[in-house]
Design goal:
four-stranded antiparallel sheet, single chain, alpha+beta, 2 domains, 8 helices
Amino acid sequence: MNYNLTPKQRDLIKDIVEEVRAGNLEGEFNVTWLPNGTAYFAGDYWGKKVFGDMSRINLKALEKEELLEVVDMGSGYKCAPKEFAFQAIDSDFGASIVPSTATSGVAVQVNDVVLVQLLEGYFDLDELRELCFKVGVKYENVGGGTLFLKCQNLVSYMVRRGRLMTLIVTAVKERPEVDWSSLH
């Protein structure tokens, strides 16, 4: 997929994805601007990264490229990186995996139950923690006292946020020897 982004816009989405993956920035965050144009996060940001040009124009450009969800709240923007953002970063903006809806208009149905079973069968708790990190989810926020429940909750979390393909792509990269064809 070709992205029509400036180097500053690419750096901005890289910074956002890195901070989400590191757990320093929630998957959904608010950006507000001071009268002088300086952007800041309205809410909790735990990182120390100085973000590049987080202008309205750059955030809207990322939205146009399907990398960031942006909602104008009047006093600022509510933003959330989309599935494609993580894929674009992982592929260095190269040939990222595109869900079939983007190319053919037909959605691929994923069997969530089978995905949970595959994750439980091929990842232990420590490996699931690493998988959560790689998809930008705080492991501590994935409820469940057993491996099965944690896998089930992770899948549900990703479905609710429209990021299931990110989880699948990452799991496939981590376990290329597994037959993932039973997912659909």
